Amino acid sequence: MDALDSLLKNITDEEETLSVAKLYALSGLDRDELERVRRVWPSTAVDRRQAIMRHLAEISEANFEVDFGSIFRMGLADDDPEVRAAAIDGLWEEEDAKLIPTLLDLLRNDSSEMVRAAAATSLGHFVLAGELDEIPAAKLEQVVESLRDVFEDDSETLDVRRRAVEAIGYSSADGVADLIAEAYADDEEPMRISAVFAMGRSADLRWADPVLAEVDSPNPEMRYEAARACGEMQNLDAIPALTTLLDDPDDQVREAAVWALGQIGGNEARRLLAGILEDEESDLREVAEAALDELEFMSGSDLDFPMFDFNPDDDATDRAA
Question: Which of 3, 135, 146, 242 is the most interior residue, by most CB within 10 Å?
Answer without folding.
Answer: 242
